[in-house]
């Protein structure tokens, strides 16, 4: 029966042949270095795990009950040589892992500009390709400020050219991840994260959000095209040939939650649209976070700007194109003014009409003493019976 079960499982094992272990076979230099880091770490740990597993089987076999030739030492309790091996080997491995972790943390910092685009091929001093990434519900927007074009759910980059991603989001946290290119980087509203990477092999690769973000998360995917320079120029020309323009109004409509959005190209992008998205003020009439931070850096709003304080709170459900409601400050006072105002305040007595209820008093009055009238002795005796 056990052999039959093994035979039945063999077709399932054969299905693994169709799996694409892209993380272990990436096409970008950063992803390759990350893969090597994983491999080295696993090998170093296996230097301890494999001997331990072997010794467990060896000791169980050697000191089995049937083996009467095995040396029996019930009083043995210490071996200096064995202690040195047991403690020295793990310590050396921990030191190696610590050194590798420290160096790779700095060398593979996603904010750090690349030193190389491939092994033995140093990165050029040319400016990298800048791509502004916006995670929406539930699609991806890619803006190319150098070329003035944008795309939804499609990304392209030339082979062996450094890419600088600037990443943000509009509502909830997402995670920008192209396994063949580099590790995942979080996309958060009101914040900008960065990723430097390079693609070394031409091809079409999958990109997606690796952080759950709601109902349309499963379809929040895009295609990443690694092409040669001629292919990239053709893709840019295709975007410029589109009839659609990514204006501010078009973006506000695009920002509304939607699922399974098809690929769409835009031949132009409104100026500073990405900055408005990052500062959470793409909707007309909203105060940008940068403006609020500039006010705070000068010590607060001050009397000069006490009027005309626009709301900063971000509310994605109010994307109807209407102007935000303006708030106004009625008065400004110091702590000393507030204390003086509280001292000058006099208490206005309330209505003197008694309130019904035993022992209750109106607000602002001292509680009335409870009145208790004992029952006559005859009534008490009747109640006790």
Question: Could you please describe the fold and organization of this structure?
Answer:
This protein is α+β, with helices and mostly antiparallel strands. It folds into 3 domains: 18-67 and 79-107; 118-278, Sandwich (Immunoglobulin-like); 283-342, no CATH class. It has 9 helices and 13 strands. Strand 1 (116-118) and strand 2 form a beta hairpin. The N and C termini lie far apart (83 Å).
Short overview:
Helix content is 33%, strand content 17%. By secondary structure, the chain is of the alpha+beta class. Residues 310-324 and 378-385 have low confidence and may be disordered.
Key features of this structure:
3 domains; 13 strands; 385 residues; 5-stranded mixed beta sheet; single chain; extended; Immunoglobulin-like; oxidoreductase; 9 helices; disordered C terminus; 6-stranded mixed beta sheet; alpha+beta
* Cα end-to-end separation: 83 Å
Share of residues in helices: 25-40%
The helix/strand order is HHHEEEEEEEEEEEEHHEHHHH
Overall number of structural domains: 3
Number of helices: 9
What CATH architecture label of the largest domain applies?
Sandwich
Spans of 5+ residues with little confidence (pLDDT < 50)? 310-324, 378-385
Q: Approximately what portion of the residues adopt beta-strand conformation?
A: 15-25%
Number of DSSP E strands: 13
């Amino acid at each position: 029966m056990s052999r039959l079960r093994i035979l039945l499982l063999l077709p399932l094992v054969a299905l693994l042949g169709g799996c694409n272990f892209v993380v272990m076979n990436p096409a970008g230099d950063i992803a390759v270095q990350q893969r090597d880091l994983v491999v080295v770490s696993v090998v170093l740990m296996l230097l301890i795990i494999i001997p331990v597993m072997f010794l467990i089987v060896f000791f169980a076999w050697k000191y089995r009950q049937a083996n009467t030739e095995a040396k029996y030492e019930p009083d043995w309790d210490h071996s200096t040589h064995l202690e040195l091996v047991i403690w020295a080997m793990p310590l050396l491995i921990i030191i190696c892992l610590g050194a590798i972790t420290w160096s790779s943390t700095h060398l593979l910092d996603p904010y750090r500009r690349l030193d190389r685009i491939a092994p033995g091929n140093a990165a050029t001093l040319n400016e990298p390709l800048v791509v502004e990434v916006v995670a929406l519900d539930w699609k991806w927007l890619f803006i190319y400020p150098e070329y003035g074009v944008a795309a939804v759910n499609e990304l392209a980059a030339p082979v062996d050219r450094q890419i600088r991603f600037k990443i943000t989001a509009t509502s909830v946290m997402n995670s920008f991840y192209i396994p063949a290119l580099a590790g995942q980087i979080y996309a958060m509203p009101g914040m900008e994260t960065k990723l430097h990477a390079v693609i070394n092999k031409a091809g079409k690769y999958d990109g997606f959000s690796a952080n759950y973000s709601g109902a349309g998360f499963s379809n929040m995917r895009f295609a990443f095209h690694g092409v040669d320079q001629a292919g990239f120029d053709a893709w840019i020309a295709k975007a410029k040939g589109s009839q659609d323009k990514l204006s501010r109004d078009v973006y506000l409509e695009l920002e509304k939650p939607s699922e399974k959005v098809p690929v769409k190209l835009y031949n132009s992008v409104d100026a500073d649209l990405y900055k408005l998205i990052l500062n959470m003020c793409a909707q007309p009439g909203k105060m940008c976070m940068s403006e609020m931070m500039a006010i705070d850096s000068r010590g607060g709003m001050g009397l000069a700007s006490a009027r005309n304080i626009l709301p900063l709170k971000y509310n994605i459900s109010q994307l109807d194109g209407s102007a935000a409601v303006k708030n106004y400050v009625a008065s400004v006072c110091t702590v000393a003014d507030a204390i003086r105002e509280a001292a000058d305040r006099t208490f206005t007595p309330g209505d003197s009409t008694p309130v019904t209820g035993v022992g209750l008093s109106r607000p602002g009055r001292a509680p009335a003493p409870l009145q208790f009238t004992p029952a006559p002795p005859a009534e008490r005796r009747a109640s006790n019976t």
